[in-house]
Structure formats: C-alpha cells, structure tokens
User: What shape does this take?
Amino acid sequence: MIKIFNLLTNIVFKKKQPVSIVHFLTNRCNARCSFCFINFSDNKIFQNELNLYEIDKLTKKLGSSIRNVSFTGGEPFARKDILEIAKLYIKNSLIQSIYITTNGSLPERILAFAKNINAFNKNIELNFQISIDHFPDKHDKIRKIPNLFKNCLTTYFSLRELNIPQINSNVAITVSEENYQDIEGIYNYLYYRKRIKHIKAILVRDEGIYKNNISKKKLILDAYKLLTNKIIKNLNVTKNNFNEKSLQGKIHQQKDIIAFRLIKKIAQHNKYISPCHAASLFGIITAQGDVYPCEILENKKIGSLRDVNMDFIKLWNSKKNFEIKKDILNNKCFCTYECGMSFNIIGNYRYYFDLALGLFK
Ligand code: SF4
Ligand code: SF4
Assistant: This one.
C-alpha cells in the first residue's frame, strides 16, 4: 500500500523518479529501413554495448517508482543475451512490464524469450510491438530482409496463440513517406485479410539521420489521421491491444486513444499542448549507457552511467538533470514522440477523467 502511495505521489506531484525507461539494447539490426535514425555507416555505434555485469548494477539502481522498461534498438533480439538482461530487470528492479519493439524477423527467438520470461515470472506483462509498414513485397523491400513480412506474421500469431493474458503482441504501422498513399489499403489488408486485430499507429518523425520531406508532411499527417480513426473504430470490436484483464492494460488502451488525439493536434498546429515529463517520469538509456531525457534531444545528455558506477538515480538526481528538466518545462518543449506522450498523459491530471473512462469500457 505504501509503495503504491509513493508511486502515485511521484507520478502526480513530485515527478522525481522514472516510472519507465527505454533501453536501447543495441544499435545492431539485420534490417536497413530507409527511415531509420541509425547511421549504420558509423562503426563506433556498434561497439561497447553495456554488458551483463553493468546491467546487473544498473537494474539495482532504478529507484522505487520504476514499473516498466521498454527494450528497443536496433533490433533488440540481435542481442543473444536479451533473456538474461530481462531477467536482471525483473530480479533487481520493481518493473511489472516489459515492452519490446521488434522488426519481427526472428520468430523462434522471440517466442522462446516470451515462454522463458513467463516461466521465470508469471506476473510480468510482456508486450511485443512488431513493425509492419506495407503489403508483403513492399515491406520486405523497404526493410531489406527477405521473407520479413511472413516472419512478422509468425511472430504475431505464435505469441497470441500462447493464450497467456500477460503476453500480448501487436503490429505497429509507421506512417511515412513510404506508405502514406496506401495506408487505408494496408490497414484493411492486415486487419481483414490477415486477421491482425491489434494494430497501432506511429507517426514518422525527424530523428537521428532521418529527416522528413517537408512537402509531404501534411499528406503523411492526413494518412495518420485516417489510420488512427480506423483503429479507434475497430477497438469497439477488438479491445485488447494490451492485457484487457489488467488495470494497466485498460489504462494503456485508453491512453493510446488520447495519445492519437494529442499527436494529431500537435503535428497539425505545430504547437505545445501540455508539459513534457521527460527527464522526470521517463528517460532513455543508449546501448553504451548514456542517459538522455528522450530520443529526440540528442544535445541534452544527462550523463554516462559508466561515469557513476551505473548508478542511474545518481544521474537522475544530478544538478545537470535538474537544469535539463527545467529547460524542457520552461521552454514548453513539444513533439509527437509516442513513448513520451504516454507518460505525459499519465503524469498530467487534466487527462485523468479521460483515462478513467477506459476502466469502464
Ligand atoms: S528495423 Fe528498426 S532499427 Fe532496424 S533498420 Fe529498421 S527502423 Fe532501424
Ligand atoms: S517534448 Fe519531445 S523532444 Fe521535448 S523533451 Fe519531451 S519527448 Fe523530448
């Protein structure tokens, strides 16, 4: 009870400890998407990934509010020790869920991971977000992996067929220059023909070496609106993008609907709506252990975990992070970063009524 009280106090008022972190496990990836933010020609980015010994230390120093870690990359399953990494998070920290973004190219490895984690701890929620952007041939071509679409489907369905409420899979469509003209057809193909009933939308954004084509921005946004409207309409039929039996799952579902609305508004009017809690409720850790408020503010490094003996909370409470947080709030920083949006919604009481509606759906 005290733990929950402290967690809620942190989320609503203090905002001093992270509730969720995104851990980029690696920059390695077997795909080469045209819109990827990673500069694959720079060999340095593949070196010096945090090792298990360092991750063991890190996971003991994530504070008392941490409830979720999101693994991403690169392709997180390119790390063969991903299972050990996940177990360290579960054993050493207070996380209750692990979200994983994957290109879905390694179905057997992903399924073995899910079964293993569920056997290790039945209460941990696992959510796999599999990226699909186009019809089969084009998807494989955009991501430059033969048979990728087929493997994405195998990954999605084999996880669903486990029929374990704590294990969920969904497909995320990133709306970009590559697919905005075909978005309705792609959605219909996935939902009706391939019977993928758990679909999310992501709006492509400028990041790393990828820059949007300005002249296409409006068209991409229109396609994003169309896609999110279709997703919301069909949510009445298919409720569970997440574990529909858990409180967390219901809140997540509703939070996605609010996030779609906010992202459309921010992208359309290019303006600030509400405070961002990057560097307070959420942050990111790079493959080499650098900590940032979010993926976008590449010039606002909070520090390196290796310089503080992997003590995450020490960096989080540093004077430097205090200044970064202040800057983000005072400058009314805004963007459409989906992960950030989630925590800006749960950390802002103006959205609580809307969130609570999700509990009655
Ligand atoms: S799958 Fe993801 S990490 Fe890999 S190249 Fe594509 S966008 Fe980049
Ligand atoms: S608004 Fe976006 S860019 Fe600014 S701090 Fe938040 S997540 Fe980062």
Q: What stands out?
A: Residues 29, 31-33, 36, 38, 73-75, 103, 143 surround iron/sulfur cluster (ligand 1) (CB under 6 Å). Strands lie at 20-24, 68-72, 97-102, 125-131, 167-175, 199-203, 282-285, 290-292, 303-304. The longest strand covers residues 167-175.
